[in-house]
Amino acid sequence: KAGVTQTPRYLIKTRGQQVTLSCSPISGHRSVSWYQQTPGQGLQFLFEYFSETQRNKGNFPGRFSGRQFSNSRSEMNVSTLELGDSALYLCASSLDGGGGPNEQFFGPGTRLTVL
Amino acid sequence: AQSVTQPDIHITVSEGASLELRCNYSYGATPYLFWYVQSPGQGLQLLLKYFSGDTLVQGIKGFEAEFKRSQSSFNLRKPSVHWSDAAEYFCAVGHRGSTLGRLYFGRGTQLTVWP
Question: B14, B113 in Cβ contact below 8 A?
């Protein structure tokens, strides 16, 4: 079974631009979560989508948004990029069978550099 | 507020030596507990998880962890470290209830293995 895939793997943008990152979960997984990883703040939760609906949201500004499609694929968008948005963005999927928590399986991440 | 503490930022051990990585959490009830490992430039790989039941859990690559409710700890252990275990290790906590899709991570412990 294929793992979580994220595209692109690397991105370089300039301040003020916007960016869209894509995540394809493991087949059959319905929950997709996004995390930002930086040396200064560590791993921080951005948001989670389940059945095309945002179910949880972390403490990030409105410049960070996401969505999920009917095939469970997810995208996240960052508008008006700032230097501090440079980070590894990780996507994770889980089965979410409803009986309790399911472990999250992570993709390789998208490394975003903002110049 | 929920928190996960990994007191050791960096640990160095010799190959073949035993290893223990510490993790403490702050949460009002028994959380779901995870250990992940991250190699440079990679996403997170799940090593093991604790949901309920036996407090000593076995994971992949010869790792085990023990949940101690009285100490709010979930320490990771390995009896004999291999050079390939050098990586960064993250402890994570998930909550029962509406925040199923969200994990709270510790800041990580970087493991260096001497030959």
Answer: yes
Q: What are phi and psi of A85, to 5 degrees?
A: -85, -5
| A100·B104 Cβ contact <8 A | no
Which sign does the torsion angle of CA A90, B106, A100, B20 carry? positive
Nearest CA to A16 out of A62, A85, A67 is that of A85
> Tokens 């508008």 sit at which residue?
A79
Q: Which residues contact A61 (CB under 8 A, 6 or more apart)?
A: none
Distance CA B96, CA B29 (A): 9
3-state secondary structure of A84: helix
Residue whose C-alpha is closest to residue A106's, from A39, A18, A43: A43
Distance from CA of A37 to the nearest CA of B (A): 10
Residue B11's beta-bridge partner residues? B111
List, for residues A42-79, the tens digit of each pLDDT value. 999 999 999 899 988 999 999 999 999 999 999 999 99
**Contacts with A50 from chain B: Cβ below 8 Å:** 101
Chain centroid to CA A63: how far?
A: 14
Q: What pairs with residue B109 in β-bridges?
A: B89
For chains A and B, count residue pairs whose Cβ atoms are closer than 8 Å: 62
Q: What is the pLDDT of residues B27-66, one digit of tens each?
A: 777 788 999 999 988 899 999 999 888 899 999 999 999 9
DSSP B43-74: -EEEEEEE-SS-SEEE-GGG-EEEEEGGGTEE
Contact B28, B12 (CB under 8 A): no
